[in-house]
Specification:
204 residues, TIM Barrel, seven-stranded parallel sheet
Length: 204
């Protein structure tokens, strides 16, 4: 199975976003060509402390619609990336607690936040953080929930989505736990997960 073929299979499930990692140290570093996808799918380039020119070149090359910044990028840097005309998603890593006041300077320069699990690596740590921390989220900006979400977490996800702290959770970021090997997604598992959410009246 080729990478392009797997991307097309993922697209057939009609996710809102499909991400491509442009961080060379990642085993999921994307070197291929993004196939033609339905216009409603938002292509996301994931970068970690990358130079602005690299991001700009990559956005133009692949016609990316969104950029996810997964490092220690400043609010000023996010503003510069936003000037490229893309959706900006800024990632923040959480474990058992988090100082949400650090988000304030990013409010006007990011479209979404993404909350991931704090670990030794930038993403891909394979486990969830304590979602109860989000009860203290004080802002009105929608956020993505990431970090170790897999098929076995469906009951926990459904419980979380019934709680008030999930009201601003607009997207679930599904990654390593839905892979057969790095990069290649398990289409059957993704379909089952989506069906379980839909059957509980949560559209994805």
């Amino acid at each position: 199975m080729t990478l392009d073929y797997n991307i097309s299979e993922v697209a057939s499930i009609e996710p809102e976003y499909i991400g491509f990692i442009f961080h060379e140290k990642s085993p999921r570093f994307f070197k291929g060509r993004i196939p033609n996808l339905p216009k409603h799918i938002i292509t996301v380039g994931v970068f970690v402390n990358a130079p602005f020119e690299y991001i700009k070149t990559t956005v133009n090359k692949h016609l990316l619609k969104s950029v996810q910044l997964h490092g220690e990028e400043s609010a000023e840097f996010c503003k510069k990336v936003k000037s490229l005309g893309v959706i900006v998603i800024k990632v923040f890593s959480i474990k058992n607690q988090f100082d949400f006041s650090v988000l304030e300077v990013y409010d006007s320069v990011c479209d979404y936040y993404l909350f991931d699990t704090k670990g030794k690596k930038y993403g891909g740590n394979g486990y969830t953080f304590n979602w109860n921390v989000l009860k203290k989220y004080p802002y009105s900006k929608p956020y993505f929930l990431s970090g170790g979400i897999g098929p076995k977490e469906i009951d926990s996800i459904l419980t979380f989505l019934k709680n008030p702290e999930s009201d601003l959770c607009c997207t679930l970021d599904l990654n390593s736990k839905f892979e057969t090997v790095s990069v290649l997604k398990d289409i059957k598992l993704l379909k089952i997960f989506k069906l379980q959410l839909n059957s509980n009246n949560y559209a994805v």
